[in-house]
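Might you be able to check the backbone structure tokens below? Thank you kindly.
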Amino acid sequence: MILKLTIDDQTCNIDVSAEIMQEAEAFYAKMDKDMDKGWQMSRTWVENPDLYQRCQIVADRILGAFHTENRKMAVLMSGYILSRVPHIEEVVVDTSGDITLTEVVT
């Protein structure tokens, strides 16, 4: 599956194999469990992030992976989004520091 990701004026397609997503499902379930406890989203504490907010949180992790050139982490985090929202069209990552401005386009 492919996640279309836009950061600033750069758009890329991140290809995540079904095998990677299947192997990482236990890790994704742990991520969900961690987010079930609440998450700091920029200046706001979100008690129980919904699916859209979870994708915003994970997209922020992808942004961090791009900044550190950690391709494996970018693919792994992209797999999370694809596994939870398989019909996703694009993620437009906000780079201003406010993850609530990241757009998840379905």
About this structure: The mean pLDDT is 95. The first helix runs from residue 18 to 23. The chain has one domain: 2-105. Residues 51 and 84 are 8 Å apart (CA to CA).
